[in-house]
Amino acid sequence: MDRFVVFDVETPNFKNDRMSAIGVAVVENGELVSEFETLINPETFFNRFNIDLTGITPEAAAEAPTFPEVWRELRPVFESGILAAHNAPFDMGVLRACLAHYNIPWRKYAPYVCTCQMARRCYGLPHNNLNVLCDHLGIALDHHRAGSDSRAAALLLVDELARGMDAREFKRFYYMLPKTGEVS
Questions:
Q1: Which residues face 8 on adjacent strands?
Q2: Which of 6, 11, 139, 163 fits as disulfide partner to 134, beta carbons 3.0 to 4.6 Å?
Q3: Residue 17's closest CA among 89, 100, 86?
């Protein structure tokens, strides 16, 4: 496992079935090699909590590309390595829900690692939130901004690997086909 596609999503509301932003940072051979971020028009409602958390308003996302437009660019990247995220089940679930909503077939299972799970074993800190870990390691973070969060999670992964963590021990497979009732 030499290539990881580290991603972070922001959502417009509590349903967590659409993205309002995505950040992607690629780690190859232990180094951050590329980054990408964009707002996404989620084509659904925003709630105040998510607007306050992410700073993304309906007006800001209105002219952004939709998920299918962004996915056309990201799919080859997502297929080029092992996916990774901090608290990965959340981001993987949002990705699955977006694919389901737009009836976009992908793969049945996607391999991934969770930098939060790796951090629990690597650092032995009482809390493993991304902001706590970034403070501990001196990684710059503008929290709940997809590009910053994906970059920070990628740098966290680089540090975990440099400290001898074996990502193969943390590799899991996320079921990507729609759950019952997930397709709208």
A1: 23
A2: 139
A3: 100
pLDDT in tens, 26-40: 999 999 999 999 999
Rounded Cα distance, 104 and 23, in Å: 20
Structure-token pair, residue 182: 């997930």
Tens-place pLDDT, residues 103-146: 999 999 999 999 999 999 999 999 999 999 999 999 999 999 99
Pairing of strands 109-114, 82-85: parallel
Beta bridge partners of 32: 27
Between CA 22 and CA 21, with CA 178 as vertex, the angle to 5 degrees is 10
CA distance to 121, 122, 151, 166, per residue, from 9 (Å): 24, 24, 12, 25
| 3-175 fold | Nucleotidyltransferase; domain 5 (3.30.420)
Q: Whole-structure pTM over 0.90, yes or no?
A: yes
- Residue ranges covered by each domain of the chain: 3-175
Tracing tokens 């993987």 back to the chain, one arrives at 92
